[in-house]
Amino acid sequence: MAARIAPWSCLVVFVATVLQLGAAAVLPGLPQFAGKAFGARAVLYPVLMLSVPAWWFLRRRRPAPPATPRDVPWGAFTLVMLPFLVDVTGNTLDLYDRVGWFDDVCHLANWALMCGGLGLLTDPEGRASRGLRALAIAGLGALLAIVWELGEWWTFMRFGTELDGAYLDTLGDLALGSLGGLLAAVLVVMFPPRHVPREAEDPARRPSRPRGR
After folding, report:
1. d(CA 79, CA 9)
2. Could you give the C-alpha distances from 144 to 108, 114, 156, 173, in angstroms and in order?
3. Are 196 and 130 in contact (CB under 8 A)?
4. By CB neighbour count within 10 A (0-12 exposed, 13-18 middle, 19+ buried), where does 162 fall?
5. Most exposed residue of 24, 105, 142, 211, measured as fewest CB within 10 angstroms of its CB?
6. Beta-carbon neighbour count of residue 175 at 10 Å?
7. Per-residue pLDDT in tens (0 to 9) along the chain, 213 residues
């Protein structure tokens, strides 16, 4: 299903995110943007959203001929970009402060979306076994959860704006992010991209070919 998403889906997600980041920069006095490092987000979020498509196109150009529009994994790109839109929209609507469970749901769902998109770009030819692919995706989710929490601490938590209960919140976010990565790993392995041959999903299941004499 992700492979059928059109190119404009990435553009819509990207533009919606950038517009809200611009609003936060123009209206910094709004309470939902205060103390949440939106200056850093305005720079990092667009760069991070475009980094995966840029990496894919640069990597694709070197060993293979240019990709046709149907070859481009727009669905995977959109999944990677969606968590940034969800995070910015949640802050714009002040959901993080008004809805107690919103932050927890975001850490689980956003990591599942992002790791799902990255997982679809991992080993697209299906050369590795399903177990290795699942381990790589789940491990990536845990690593990204750690990097995110370090980024939160460095940008605004260390200045004391949200120190109350920060330890338990960080542990919970790490657990939920890792769980989201694990969920993405299970889904990507169970429902691989359609262009991956069925026999390539697991080398152990490939039928043995008779050797020539």
Report:
1. 10
2. 12, 10, 18, 11
3. no
4. middle
5. 211
6. 15
7. 454 567 889 999 999 999 999 988 888 778 888 777 788 889 999 999 999 999 998 887 655 555 555 578 999 999 999 999 999 999 999 998 899 899 999 999 999 999 999 999 988 777 888 899 999 999 999 999 999 888 877 776 666 555 565 677 788 889 999 999 999 999 999 887 665 444 444 444 455 554 544
